[in-house]
Each structure stands twice: as C-alpha cells, then as structure tokens.
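Re: that backbone. Tokens:
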C-alpha cells in the first residue's frame, strides 16, 4: 500500500469516526490551552480562496494571538501536498470546511520538540503541515498522534477539540487575554442521598418552594398515590404536613406562584388551582378555586400544567398540555377577579402549525429577548412558538425538526422537556432539549435557532429514555450545566457539565474528586426533577422523584472542595477564584416570567436566568437565580419583571471561599 493511499484512507476513516461518539470523548491530557502553550505562534484566519486544481488555499490572517509574525491582514498561501490535494479536490468530509469564508485556527512552531516549522491547524478537524516561510505553508497530513501533558501518547487529536472552529477561535482570544476557562475535569461533588419519603406510586411532579413562609424551601410531591407536602420547619428537618394543610389531591404535575398577588403562594396541582391562605394564628391552608381545563375528558388527558406570563400584566396565567390535545392557555382575570378565560384560540395555539392535537411537554422561556414568554413544544417535529405583542404565538420558521419519540415502541410525548438557558452565549437564552438517548443544543444566534449539537463533545454520551432536563450552574463556575432524568425504572440520570465554548463533559466520567455522587438515586431513574438551594448554603441542590416512589434530596457539596492547591492548572486556579451570587426574586407581581441578569458596571451581560421556566415535565424550583462568577468584583443585578417593571441593585462578589453574595430582589413599586 502506498503512502498516499494510506493517508487518504486515514482521512476517510477520520471522517467516518467524526460522526460517532468515539470522536466526542474528551482527552483531558491534551487541550487547546496546552497547544497554545506549546507553539510559538498562534493565529486565526479566514479562507480567502481555494484553488482545488493546484491543491491549496489562501488564508487571510484576522488575529495574531501569540508570536510576532505574520501580521494581521497578511495572506498565507497553503499548498496541499499529495493525498491532501486529492482529498481537497474530492471534498472529502471534513475537508469541506476548507472553503471560502471559513475560519481557521493555526499553531506554528512547536517549542518542546524544537520543531520550529511544524504546523498544526484546525478547520473542522486537525491537520498537519510545515512552515516554508511566514507567507507560505505546506499542508501534508490529516489527524495524527501526539503526546499529552502526562507524557502518554494520544492516538488522535480528536479529544483535544471537536467543536466548531469559531468557538475555538473565541477560546484562543480568551487564552491570549488570560481569561479562558475550559475545565478538564468535573469540579463538582454531592453529598449522600437524603430519602425524604417513599410513596406507593410514581412521583410524577415535584416542587422545591417556600410554601410556609419561614424562608426555608418546602417540598411538594405530585403522585397518583396522592400528593404530599413536606414542610421544612428547621434546616433539613421535614415534616409531612399534607393532612394539616388539608390537601387531598392526586396529580401529575405541580407549579407554584402567587396568582392573585396577595403575598401567599398558590398551587397549580395538575389542572386544579388551589388558593393559599393563612389565618391570624398562622394556620396555612389551600382551597380549590378552579380547574383547567374545564372539560372532564380533557382534564383526564392532562400531561402537565404550569403558570405562564401570557399577556404582560404580571398576573400568572396557566398553560396546560394534553395527551393528543395540544396546548391550552388560560388567562388570569387579574385585578378584576373572576374566572380564568380560555384564550387558546386567541393565542393561536389551536392551529396545526402550532402543535394543535399534539402530545408533548412544553418548555417556557424568552427566546427573542423582548420580555415576552415563548414556548418550545416537544410534539411532532417540535415547535418553537414565539409570542408577539398581541399575545399570539407563531412557530419559528427555521426551528430544526427533531424527533420526540422514545422506547422500543417509539412512544410520543415522553421526552423533550428542556430548558431555556444561556448555554452557548451569555446575553441570550439558548435551548437544551433532551431526546430519547441524547440531547439537542439549539443556539440562539441573533434569533435564529441553530442546532450545534455535533460540536458538543460528550453531549452525545447520553442515557436512555430521557424524560426531562433542567439547566443550572451545578458546578458554580459560571457555565450553566444540565441534569437529565431517565424515566426507566433503573435508568441512569445524567449530569452533563458545560465547559463553555459549546463543549460538554459527562461529569461522572471526568470527576475531579474521589466521588461525585454517593447515593443510588443516579441509577434509579426519575419522573420528577427540580433544582434549587434547599439548605441555604448558596449551592443549587437536586430534588428527584422516581418510579419507585422515592423522594430524594441530593445536596450540592462543591464549595467544600474549593481549597488552595500547590501548582494549580489554569482551570483550577480560575475556579478557586470564582464567587457565588444567590438572588431571590420577590414580587408579588411579575415574578413568573421575570428575567434576572448579572451585568458588569458598564452594562454587559455576564449571565442570566428565567424565573419559572425550569419546569421539567411538571416540576418547579424556587424563584431564585444562582450564579457562579469567575471574576470577583462589582456587578449589577437587573430584574426585568414579567410586566415590564425593572429594577437594578449593585452587588459585590468575592471568591466563594470567603463569602457567598446574597440579594433579595424586591420590587420598588
């Protein structure tokens, strides 16, 4: 076999592997920061022109991140040699990224090996070559073996960077400024499972919310066996107060909000609205007010119900998902009082193009950034429903079609409950959507939904029978992570760490400490999921309910591991400096659908959260936003309430090893 044929075959093999999880596995021993350190010159550029006949392309330098030459704007002629020229002429995948307008990242001159002319560049895949001069390079080979920082050989460069070239270029900019954070390990830890109770039937919905008003989050459990309420009377001391509160419901979902703005939380238990009340002696109770929908047959088909801001008046409205019946929307009468009104037709949710007649879960958030709540509906191919100023919803025409069936019988309506969160960028809400055995990451690129899942590394390392996902910065490092439950009786729940730059890591595989999860609940599946600070230590915890009837609280213990170490890597050093800010949002008006933004003093958005949107197929977390902040200092917190009211507060954030910054954001009007 000739060298040229062997090289072409290796390129083809790499192309095949690019579409399977092997390429997605992360090599923690060799990452872009290591390449940045090893090479004398690091630059990014854009392909000006491709000469397939001659075998090569011309690269215009757009940024020089390290080194002295070549200058920005200079054109470099890159000649493809032998097999690379053949592959370029045939447009072998992933050579298709060698095209006019495509970005390139390049590393020139490896110092450790005294290979001053060695070239490594990335354009959808890694390639090798040599520097003939500053203005001329040779492109000689495809992916190859290198040595990791531990001195061990790395079979391919695949685990070093598998993401998009623009995101790599963004990281190189941050590396040059000393601001990059791209963790090699899962710097998170959780305590032993706390079994709150075990019911005789599946836990279908769960809420972590202060129902009693003592400042400690309580637990509400929805189950066909009968709902339960566990009040937290003292830190982590829960009592079953179901009978005391007069609750006799059995339901499939739970949401909490102050629908009548009287300062007392109300419950949306399945399709039944319960008004909260308190007498002079402090006795709490909940009284049925109304049912959604009003028809008995439709109520029997209810999958989940939640509070939503649908008309901009700050009074929580109600959205309902029905098996085979699509979505229903009910308007809160507001100050006038009276019954909720069915506005499904007015909202445009009775149309086939908006998912009418579908079977799926919904996700709430603000895709357009206009302050109005939008919906992702996981039925059929999936619908991203955008709300206009008149309260009408229309499907985004460019939303990628997805598949929301799962199990051996391809059952519909049992996956797809995701979250709107700043997954890729910090100033907008993207979408993370679970499907049967993996996820889709939908980037919000100036309002356009772009599926960037293929660049996500271990986002492909899924479980099976995924039901729902919540988004929360569980690692407290400034990146919003995801946690997904499997509805299988012994399903593996998945914790996926967001490393930034569109890359994800299977947390339990790359754990930094001896253990990450100690209890059995990780492998017992789940039907209900919420995150929030259960014990007041500023860390988001995990609350689970599963088919076994278990109600399990998993306390986050990440901050206890943040202790100084000798000779920390760059990612550890940056993590040790990170601070934590915990914001509690108080209304009563406009809390559901409020947006909490963390900003620099100059007004740049650092992070953001949507209140009431992490509803995980019928569950609810507290009205809070917990931010990991990598740069301690002075910031602003901006809360834009759902009725348009805004207020800002200055905050000072120190490293979490010193103090947790806390803010209670109360309306000024």
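Recovered sequence:
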């Amino acid at each position: 076999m000739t060298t040229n044929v062997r090289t072409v075959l290796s390129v083809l093999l790499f192309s095949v592997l690019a579409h399977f999880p092997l390429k997605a596995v992360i090599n923690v021993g060799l990452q872009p920061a290591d390449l940045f350190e090893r090479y004398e010159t690091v630059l990014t550029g854009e392909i000006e022109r491709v000469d397939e006949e001659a075998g090569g392309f011309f690269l215009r330098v757009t940024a020089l991140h390290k080194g002295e030459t070549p200058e920005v704007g200079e054109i470099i002629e890159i000649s493809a040699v032998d097999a690379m020229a053949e592959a370029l002429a045939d447009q072998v995948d992933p050579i298709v990224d060698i095209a006019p307008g495509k970005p390139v990242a390049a590393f020139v001159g490896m110092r450790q090996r005294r290979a001053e002319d060695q070239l490594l560049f990335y354009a959808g895949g890694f390639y090798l070559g040599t520097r003939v001069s500053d203005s001329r390079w040779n492109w000689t080979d495809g992916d190859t073996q290198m040595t990791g920082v531990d001195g061990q050989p790395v079979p391919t460069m695949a685990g070093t960077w598998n993401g998009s070239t623009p995101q790599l270029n963004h990281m190189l900019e941050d590396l040059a400024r000393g601001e990059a954070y791209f963790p090699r390990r899962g710097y998170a830890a959780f305590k032993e499972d706390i079994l709150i109770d075990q019911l005789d039937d599946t836990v279908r919905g769960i809420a972590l919310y202060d129902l009693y008003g003592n400042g400690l989050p309580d637990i509400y459990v929805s189950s066909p066996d009968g709902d339960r309420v566990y009040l937290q009377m003292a830190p982590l001391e829960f009592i079953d107060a179901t009978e005391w509160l007069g609750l006799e419901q059995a339901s499939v979902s739970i949401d909490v909000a102050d629908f009548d703005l009287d300062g007392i939380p109300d419950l949306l238990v399945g399709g039944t609205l319960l008004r909260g009340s308190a007498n002079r002696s402090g006795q709490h109770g909940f009284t049925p007010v109304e049912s959604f929908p009003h028809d008995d047959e439709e109520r029997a088909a209810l999958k989940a119900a939640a509070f939503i801001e649908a008309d901009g008046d700050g009074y929580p409205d109600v959205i309902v998902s029905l098996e085979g019946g699509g979505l229903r929307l009910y308007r809160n009468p507001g100050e006038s009082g009276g019954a909720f009104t069915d506005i499904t037709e007015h909202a445009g949710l009775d149309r086939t193009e908006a998912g009418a007649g579908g079977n799926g879960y919904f996700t709430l958030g603000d895709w357009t950034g206009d302050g109005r709540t939008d919906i992702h509906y996981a039925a059929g191919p999936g619908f991203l429903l955008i709300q206009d100023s008149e309260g009408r919803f229309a499907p985004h025409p460019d939303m990628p079609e997805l598949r929301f069936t799962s199990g051996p019988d391809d059952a519909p309506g049992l996956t797809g409950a995701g979250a709107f969160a700043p997954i890729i960028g910090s100033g907008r809400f993207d979408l993370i959507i679970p499907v049967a055995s993996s996820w889709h990451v939908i980037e919000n690129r100036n309002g356009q939904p772009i599926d960037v899942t293929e660049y996500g590394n271990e986002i492909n390392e899924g479980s099976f029978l995924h039901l729902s996902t919540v988004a929360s910065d569980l690692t407290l490092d400034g990146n919003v992570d995801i946690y997904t439950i499997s509805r299988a009786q012994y399903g593996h729940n998945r914790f996926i760490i967001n490393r930034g730059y569109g890359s994800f890591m299977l947390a339990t595989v790359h754990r930094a400490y001896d253990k990450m999860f100690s209890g059995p609940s990780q492998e017992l599946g789940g039907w209900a999921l919420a995150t929030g600070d259960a014990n007041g230590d500023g860390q988001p915890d995990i609350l689970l309910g599963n088919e076994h009837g278990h109600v399990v609280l998993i306390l986050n213990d990440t901050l206890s591991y943040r202790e100084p170490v000798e000779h920390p890597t760059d990612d550890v050093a940056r993590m040790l400096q990170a601070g934590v800010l915990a914001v509690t949002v108080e209304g009563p008006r406009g809390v559901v659908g409020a947006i909490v933004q963390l900003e620099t003093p100059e007004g740049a958005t650092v992070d953001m959260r949507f209140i009431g949107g992490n509803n995980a197929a019928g569950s609810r977390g507290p009205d809070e936003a917990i931010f990991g902040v990598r740069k301690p200092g002075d910031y602003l917190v901006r809360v834009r309430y759902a009725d348009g009211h805004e207020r800002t507060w200055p905050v000072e954030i120190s490293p979490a090893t010193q103090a947790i910054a806390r803010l209670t954001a109360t309306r000024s009007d």
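The longest strand covers residues 39-51. The helical segments are 3-17, 21-24, 32-38, 83-90, 165-177, 296-300, 570-577.
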